[in-house]
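Hey,
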Amino acid sequence: MKKSVGIFLFLSAFSASPVSVEASEAGDTTLKDARSIKKRIENVKNNTHLIGAGGTENRDSLSRLLNIFYYDQFRHAQDPKAPYFMFLSKNGDLALGVGGQMKIKGYFDWNGALPSSSFVPYDIPISKDPTQMRNLAASPSGTGLFFTLLGNNSRFGNFMVYFQADFGGYKDRGFRIKKAYLSVGDWTAGYTTTTFEDTQAEPETVDGAGPNGINSKKSVLVRYLHTFKNKWTVAGSLEFPSQSLSADEVNTRACNAYIPDVAAFGQFKWNDGNSHLRLSGLLRTLSYRDLLKARNYNVIGWGLQLSTVINPVAPLSIYGIVSTGRGHASYTADLGNGDFDLIPDADNPGKLYAPMSAGVVVGAQYFFTPSLYADVAFSQQTYYPKQNPKDSQYKYGLYAVANLFWDITPRFRIGAEYLHGKRKNFNGTAGSADRLMAQMQFSF
């Protein structure tokens, strides 16, 4: 008993030490209360555990370097928190952090069980299997490690090297690379979040997939991003392409992708950066071969997205995403599970075309206290082919979520969540699913 109490007190003291108030959360985009953000950033700068020369000058250097880590337009609520320990060079121009997180998620399905730990409306079974109506399971998905190297160079300015990898889940334990990139000044190169995604406008969820109406993808890319007068931001990127075509190998065949996708956005922010409005665009070229005519074709795909976060009062944030496009299905959360970038034209054998799809996400987040907060959100993804297939093809999916998170200590978080989803097909058949989830997360 004494030993257990001692271990508990040790872990509590470790978790509640000054560095984690909130070294991990100073840059979390989920926290929109400007006063809390500023307070937590100052706590990071003053209390991060420093390994190396610890003079005042070097602490100031570390504080400046940490800003590179925290102020990230593409930081997601589910990304790891800042490392507990930072190694600083003698001259204060270089800092190395090694960190990670442990996540354990438990979930219970009823009214039809989904096949994975992610709640994806596209995967909701239509014909209910009486042997799979309920399911109780758990997963360590999201558990992983990361390395970050922060620096300042007299010629290139601020830079960051970042590498993150995690486990896919309990039944799929593959250790996968999630991000690997280099940022130097306004430039980023490597494997990271597409410029077309607005992670700051997405709700925080226990569910790893998140709302089905978002555009979410990672690519190897080269991106330029610049902020003017601390209000206007523009960004553009060339992204290595990957396409998902519905080619039957009889009339049509997919060609290798060889033209990079182009993504860009323009954004205006206000309220100390806690509110913003962003317009994003995507342009891509999709290639296939008409086997009947023995000829290759290129089809232009595009996407448009309007996203926002509004912080009307300190504890409340309202967010929304509206998007549409043709040939961008592989960027969407639901349709990305199939081959919908190009599909067969029923009136013209040997032809493929880019169908339209649209997504919407609306939600809100409220902080009861700086450590207790909740999210509610609704999302829909809809598919619009020009011909009604009148079969069991996906027509639209619905996703609704309500959750509550509690930071027991700055580095130990628990959460509970209710999810409801629906899938409807073009032939009128539909299915729904319900899930309760719980999460335990420790960051280090």
